[in-house]
Amino acid sequence: MGAISEDLSAAGMxxxxxxxxxxxxxxxxxxxxxxxxxxxxxxxxxxxGVPFPxxxxxxxxxxxxxxxxxxxxxxxxxxxxxxxxxxxxSVGPFTQPNELxxxxxxxxxxxxxxxxxxxxxxxxxxEDISFPSELVIEQVSDTDVLRECIEVMRIGFELPELASxxxxxxxxxxxxxxxxxxxxxxxxxxxxxVAASALxxxxxxxxxxxxxxxxxxxxxxxxxAMTLAALREGRELGYRIGVLQSSAMGFGVYRRLGFEQxxxxxxxxxxxxx
Length: 274
Description:
- The chain is an alpha+beta fold.
- It folds into 2 domains: 10-114 and 265-270, 3-Layer(aba) Sandwich (Aminopeptidase); 121-264, 3-Layer(aba) Sandwich (Aminopeptidase), CATH 3.40.630.30.
- It contains 7 helices and 11 strands.
- Strand 8 and strand 9 form a beta hairpin.
- Helix 4 (143-156) crosses helix 5.
- The chain is globular and about 55 Å long.
């Protein structure tokens, strides 16, 4: 899981967010179904037969200006087109070249989202949050509970049903034990799984992922509670920094927990068609 990062400067926090993001997506290579392309200046993965951008993603770009950048973009776009799958391309604070976004648009991609990159000192989390006292949070340790957790994610994120099987393969490959770098959590009200979150321990920091709540259970503080549970786990394991990429819905929740924004991740999507 790497040496623990304790650089709380703005630059250190920004670097921690980026490093965790890259490392977590790199873990997906443990799943045979996913083809990981790990090059010095470009990293992406393709999931053949799964036409959903989340599972077909360029997550690391460090192209030198002296390169034929447009040719490299065409090469990657062509790989997705070969499999006929839509895809996403993440552009963050450390992406090179700086003007990659407009270049992607010139190749037919569309900007669809902006995700604030946020971080918090785990020793300074604001833990006085309100949520139902009957909420029971458990760490996922078997495949039956994992499927419940994934169903909450699928509904909460409005994902297609085909996403469930891929998530199941990825998360089981990463492991459901205390030694796994990935830990999923499910929150229950009256025994029903209604909320989820995950902790990705990578690059020396604690990454928060997959915070989701069923629509009928929202506005009760469940997302904050699920995030806090994962952050506390990271702190108990000795980590100093918590990081995440926020949705628009979650931004206020994370600010109340003490997170600050240190950058923005722009998401571009391509059709995967020639």
